[in-house]
Q: What sequence folds into this?
């Protein structure tokens, strides 16, 4: 498992989707700009997706603990700064 810790600024609105997949009811996709100007896409599911939709806005800085799965970072924990 590849574990990552990211700090970045939200550059787009949170994309929130309902899902009809086993053990997943919601998905939030976030687009972040990191300190080195790299743009990255991360995704959170269920309770994390709900937190992101309710609490995050463009230009918020977040700290994300996650794991790399395929070409996306799956959020395990997130904190708004």
A:
């Amino acid at each position: 498992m590849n574990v990552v810790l990211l700090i970045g600024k939200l550059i787009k609105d949170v994309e929130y989707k309902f899902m009809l997949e086993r053990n997943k009811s919601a998905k939030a996709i976030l687009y972040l700009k990191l300190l080195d100007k790299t743009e990255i896409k991360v995704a959170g599911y269920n309770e994390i997706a709900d937190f992101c939709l309710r609490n995050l806005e463009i230009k918020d800085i977040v700290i994300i603990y996650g794991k790399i799965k395929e070409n996306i970072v799956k959020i395990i924990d997130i904190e708004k700064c």
